[in-house]
Design a protein that fits this description.
The chain is α+β, with helices and mostly antiparallel strands and about 400 residues long. It contains 15 helices and ten strands. The chain has three domains: about 60 residues, no CATH class; about 210 residues, 3-hydroxy-3-methylglutaryl-coenzyme A Reductase, Chain A, domain 2; about 90 residues, Hydroxymethylglutaryl-CoA reductase, class I/II, NAD/NADP-binding domain (Alpha-Beta Plaits), CATH 3.30.70. About 45% of the residues lie in helices and about 20% in strands. Strands 1, 2, 3, 4, 5, 6, 7, 8, 9 and 10 form a ten-stranded mixed beta sheet that branches.
Length: about 400
């Protein structure tokens, strides 16, 4: 392909911005020009980021700006994992995209343990995506008036918000007041979409109505009471995205055979590590490494990796039973989707297809719920394996043996 050296030099000196050259002469040429400019500016020879199989026309329209290539992440599989959910039923093979050695092996062992103990039960208890604009009013009297107006006009705002989307449904608006600052936490059912774009657009429409009929000033469409992509107790307590729990009872025999430890040791590790240790640290997450599993699945399946922050709020419990160990994990704020975003990119779509959740569900929302149940069960597998390894003092040994 002939490269426009004149345009390349303009890119290098900043006379032309990276974003200005799309479609000049076409998308592929623009990518190559940007890559050449960065290569010459940084003295880096690119021989790997040029390898990709997705449709550049599609991804540059909806997924990426200033594209120069792609980064490949190694992909492993764990399973089969037997799941007994309301949406996810049967054996599943879990795609995990990670560069952390031993993670897939650990998850695979956890899947084996759960499957040998008749599978994991999984249930979803809440499903909502939130957006919380912040308004400034004159004083606390004005704040009370705005809160009351919102309560009285909820159905009108619901109609306004839902007019912007085919699938989204406004479930509630919860007010939070700090002096003359009023935060309105809008919560939506977004069906199979993770829904951040959907709820942002819908809330913006409802905000117009608020401003037209109240003495209030919109400060920001997102006031951080949502709370999106940041550690926040509100997500751990009231939920955001899917609130989902998974559990299983491990038998003494399986614990001894596959984890080389005892129920008593695992329960003690979980109590002193995940519960007491986390409390002492002031953590919002009471788990061993839930973020590890969620991140690997999210990267494989085209999710927004930043939402691993909310997912890390998970709580892991282990309690002795008469003949084994009860294990559970609860994720209060698991934000994911099977349509939109990165879910349509080739490799990510294939990973979702592995799980039987690619695209929209029938009825709408069924696929994202199934996906959430699978993620929760996989997190449970990861927790069981790591707690088992710590109880047996195998963690360092496993990393050393695998050369990590």
């Amino acid at each position: 392909m002939h490269m426009d050296r004149t345009l390349l030099e303009k890119l290098k000196i900043g006379e032309v911005g990276f974003h200005k050259i799309d479609n000049k002469p076409d998308t592929s040429a623009a990518i190559e020009l940007r890559r050449a400019a960065v290569s010459e500016l940084t003295g880096t020879k690119f021989s790997h980021i040029t390898n990709y199989s997705f449709d550049v026309e599609k991804v540059t329209k909806r997924n990426i700006e200033n594209m120069i290539g792609a980064v490949a992440v190694t992909l492993g599989v764990a399973g089969p994992l037997l799941i007994k959910g309301e949406y996810a039923k049967g054996d599943f093979y879990i795609p995990l995209a990670t560069t952390e050695g031993a993670l897939v092996a650990s998850a695979h062992r956890g899947c084996s343990v759960i499957t040998a103990c008749e599978g994991a039960n999984v249930r979803i208890f809440d499903d909502k995506m939130t957006r919380a604009p912040v308004f400034r009013v004159k004083d606390v009297i004005g704040a009370q008036r705005l809160v009351e107006w919102v309560k009285e006009n909820f159905m009108r705002m619901k109609e306004k918000a839902e007019g912007t989307t085919h699938f989204g449904k406004l479930l509630s608006i919860e007010p939070f007041v700090a002096g003359r600052n009023v935060y309105l936490r809008f919560a939506y059912d977004t069906k199979d979409a993770m829904g951040m774009n959907m709820v942002t657009i819908a809330t913006d429409a409802a905000v117009d109505m608020i401003l037209e009929e109240n003495k209030a000033e919109l400060v920001a469409l997102s006031g951080n009471m949502c709370t999106d992509k940041k550690p926040a107790a509100i997500n751990a307590i009231t939920g955001r995205g899917k609130t989902v729990s998974a559990d299983v009872v491990l038998t003494n025999e399986i614990i001894q055979e596959k984890l080389k430890t005892t129920p008593e040791k695992m329960a003690d590790v979980n109590y002193r590590k995940n519960l007491v240790g986390s409390a002492r640290a002031g953590s919002l997450g009471f788990n061993a490494h839930a973020a590890n599993i969620v991140a690997a699945i999210f990267i494989a399946c085209g999710q927004d990796p930043a939402h691993v922050v909310e997912a890390s709020n998970a709580m892991t419990l282990m309690e002795l039973t008469d003949d084994g160990l009860y294990c559970s994990v609860t994720l209060p704020s698991l934000a994911l989707g099977t349509v939109g975003g990165g879910t349509v990119i080739g490799a990510q779509h294939e990973c979702l297809s592995m799980l039987g959740v690619a695209g929209g569900g029938d009825p709408p929302g069924a696929n994202s719920k199934k996906f959430a149940e699978i993620v929760a069960a996989a997190v449970l597998a990861g927790e069981i394996s790591l707690i088992g390894a710590l109880a047996a003092r195998h963690l360092a040994k496993a990393h050393a043996e695998l050369g990590r």
